[in-house]
Hints:
Elements: H1 2-17, H2 24-42, H3 46-50, E1 60-63, E2 66-69, H4 71-82, H5 86-89, E3 91-103, E4 106-117, E5 120-133, E6 136-144
Parallel strand pairs: 1-6
Antiparallel strand pairs: 1-2, 3-4, 4-5, 5-6
Amino acid sequence: MKKLIFTILFIVTSFFANAETISPKVQQEIESTMNNSVACWNKGNLPCFMDYYVKSDDLLFISGTKFIHGWDNINQRYKERYGNNSKQMGKLQLKINGMQQLDPSHVFLYGQFHLEIESKNYDGVTSLIFVKSAGKWKIMSDHSN
């Protein structure tokens, strides 16, 4: 586990060493993407929510001790865990703490989330890597705990 944490920290540190200042336009595009994604979630619309992820076998989701690869597998995990309606999915809030443009087509975002499902509350942190694909920003890596 220590090796995994060290590896992740090394990769993120390497990204920041070569990172560019994020332009206001790109920052607004990413914020809009995240706001739209959260709105989909809060409507209980899982297909809409998943549309903000790259539909690829290279997509990576990390949570707890699990690495889930591929859009289909991640979509299935969300279906099994949260269903596909607003009652099961609950209400999501996201606070973006920071963003860094890694290169012209990649952005790193980190923040905090709050999810309320019925009377249960879940709080955690997230870090996302976005890629610009076909003119749209999409999540290519999601690490949420």
